[in-house]
Design brief:
alpha/beta, VC0802-like, Rossmann fold, seven-stranded mixed sheet, 12 helices
């Protein structure tokens, strides 16, 4: 595997594969393959650094070590042993094995994990001439994934999931993941010069992610990654990728981003997160019921994740909040709205059909992104001018 032709996998939440693929292409990598739950592309060591720093909507970044048929344990063992593990894992590297199996004859995941570990040890023995590996160095998490008797072996370059940006130390009940919040902003095609409001902002994730997008802040700048301790990827490349990211920051753009919530504790958490993200002065976050919200400005965008009855315990309160939101939105004729909700009756409560609807999963909960466009287009474009596609 040469350094300039590494197969890299960006894993994706269901329904966001096209968004992740667009992010990958925007980084300059055009050999992209999109499958359920993953986007594969070809890059080099620097691509690993850039992908970890920049991908807002992916879950993690993996190196694809190999793929082969494995209907028996012998096939799995020999296939794994033939892969170039010592090229990546040093003699003191820690290499735990995780696994999953679906529709495959090798259905015992613990047995497969044991076989993979044994095969990698055999490969390492040949390179390093030792019988024992201390595993006290950098962390190289290996995953064996079996699907229809095809084994895919990967190395996890990320560590804790990419949604862990580093700014959220506290959490509220049923928080929205940072990756999903970023996806909602990207799907809305909001631009930094326009107002943005989240009337159910909870811990502030949508406003914070919007601000990071508006200023072109790489979401991974405030955290570290497993692969930073890998000898094969020089520290200079991580430094280069970070310097590139700092050079691309556009923090001279004035932002008009506001979030509100009826829960004071949630707003306290949101304010702490905004401060940790370095964005406290750029965001307006306030305790306010949706019935009293009135965003300022024209041609703005509401992006929100209203309370779910099944998650927060009161269907009546959740539906009342949606109806109050509907009244609010009726007073904003130039604004577009993007609402993530599992509520099948949302259009009924809003009193109008959506312009577009997209199925997404918020964790394990099946939701729809209900999209309402301002008259004349997404943000008030002339009706004879098509709104940009989502890809």
């Amino acid at each position: 595997m040469s350094s300039d032709s590494i197969e890299i996998i960006a894993t994706s939440p269901m329904g966001l594969e096209a968004v992740v693929a667009r992010e990958v292409r925007n980084l300059g990598y055009d050999q992209v393959t999109v499958e359920n739950g993953r986007v594969t592309f070809v890059g080099d060591y620097l691509a690993i650094c850039r992908a970890n720093l920049w991908l807002r909507t992916a879950d993690r970044v993996l190196v694809k070590m190999g793929q082969f048929k494995a209907a028996t344990f012998d096939e799995l063992f020999e296939g794994v042993k033939a892969l170039p593990w010592p090229d990546w894992i040093p003699e003191d590297g820690e290499f735990p094995v995780e696994g999953r199996s679906h529709k495959s004859q090798l259905s015992s995941v613990p047995a497969c994990q044991g076989i993979v570990k044994k095969a990698i040890v055999e490969s390492m023995k040949r390179r390093y001439g030792t019988e024992w590996f201390r595993e006290t160095g950098g962390r190289f998490v290996i995953e064996v994934s079996l699907l229809n008797d095809i084994a895919t072996l990967t190395l996890d370059t990320t560590g804790p999931g990419l949604h862990k940006r580093g700014y959220r130390k506290l959490v509220t009940e049923a928080p929205l993941k940072e990756t999903m919040a970023a996806a909602l902003v990207l799907l809305s095609r909001w631009q930094a010069e326009r107002p943005l409001y989240d009337p159910f902002c909870g811990s502030g994730t949508i406003p914070i992610e919007a601000a990071m997008i508006g200023w072109n802040l790489a979401p991974g700048l405030r955290r570290s990654f497993n692969a930073e301790k890998w000898p094969l990827i020089p520290n200079e490349l991580w430094s280069q990728a970070r310097e590139e990211a700092y050079d691309l920051v556009k923090d001279d753009i004035p932002l008009q981003i506001t979030g509100s919530d009826i829960d004071r504790k949630a707003i306290d958490v949101a304010l702490a997160a905004a401060k940790a993200a370095g964005l406290a002065k750029e965001l307006t976050l306030q305790v306010l019921p949706v019935a009293k919200v009135m965003p300022r400005g024209d041609y703005g965008c509401i992006i929100t994740n209203p309370p779910y009855g099944e998650r927060l315990g009161d269907h009546g309160e959740a539906e009342r909040a949606i109806r109050q939101f509907s009244h609010l939105y009726g007073q904003l004729p130039t604004w577009s709205a993007f609402i993530l909700s599992p509520n099948k009756q949302l259009e009924h409560h809003m009193g109008r059909k959506t312009d577009k609807k997209r199925k997404l999963f918020n964790g394990r909960i099946e939701c729809s992104l209900y999209q309402y466009f301002a008259p004349g287009g997404l943000y008030g474009w002339r009706s004879n001018k098509a709104a940009p596609s989502e890809q």
